[in-house]
Design a protein that fits this description.
Two copies of one chain form a homodimer.
Chain A (H helix, E strand, L loop, with lengths): L27 E5 L10 E7 L10 E2 L3 E8 L1 E6 L2 E6 L3 E4 L7 E4 L6 E8 L6 E2 L6 E3 L2 E3 L8
Antiparallel strand pairs in A: 1-2, 2-9, 3-10, 4-7, 4-9, 5-6, 5-8, 10-11, 11-12
């Protein structure tokens, strides 16, 4: 069925971020539904942020375009040029190769819900302007290329 | 700015469909915002359907994955296996190469709003199960390959 059965993809709160960078996303519940829906060219995540949670560490992508569509609640989009309140119906776009770190913070007292969609993820890499972390096809490293022990 | 300024991309109601296939989408107002937002790997349309309007003729894509995210109002998703009511927060996914024609019909008395996102559009082609029409990189033809006069 083309209508996505979100309930078929469980919410997952795990992250690959090495400590201490994982703490900020502990309240992020993520449904990675593209594969379940049969999509292979699009990445798609249905995300609930509990109050206080971040969508990710502030990051940018070298190869992948990214789109965020707010469905419910409020979040603050943080990027290099400042902060922007995002509400249901608002959309944010992050072109690949633009080194403008971005993420969403739920500073409200209620859950917020958004969908994050991407294309070009294969072999993607990028960075995190606020912390000593890089990502790439082989996983996470520090900025000097050393792995996390 | 990563937050998409939808007002910067005017609504357009035009379609490339040859008559009489254009009539059903006359009440479709489309903002094709990906290029304005700097995206090149994702196609993105913010669409308002007036009461009675269709999102498109019922179609499928040979090369492009497609995702539809309902933002407001109601529409009926029509595809080979039947009809499904879509409301704000609902998502539908259309994997490339699956010949399951689909579209949205606004049968309600109020506008509805959705976002349609795609990847893999370059060189895309496909068909329309209900009418004598094909699309491809060179435009529209009848099923026998002849152009519309």
């Amino acid at each position: 069925m083309p209508k996505v059965d979100l309930a078929a993809t469980p919410h997952v709160s795990r992250t690959g971020y090495p400590p201490p960078h994982d703490a900020a996303v502990a309240g992020r519940l993520n449904r990675r539904f593209a594969a379940e829906a049969g999509l292979s060219l699009l990445g798609a995540n249905h995300v609930i942020l509990q109050p206080g949670a971040w969508s990710s560490q502030r990051h940018w992508h070298r190869l992948a375009d990214e789109l965020v569509i707010m469905l419910a609640g409020e979040a603050v989009l943080v990027e290099d040029s400042g902060e922007t309140l995002m509400r249901a119906g608002d959309i944010a776009a992050f072109p690949h190769g633009v080194e403008n770190g971005h993420h969403l913070q739920n500073r409200s007292k209620a859950e917020c819900v958004f969908v994050a969609i991407s294309a070009g993820d294969e072999g993607d890499s990028g960075g995190y302007p606020d912390i000593d972390l890089l990502f790439g096809p082989a996983g996470f490293t520090r900025r000097d290329g050393t792995p996390f022990a």
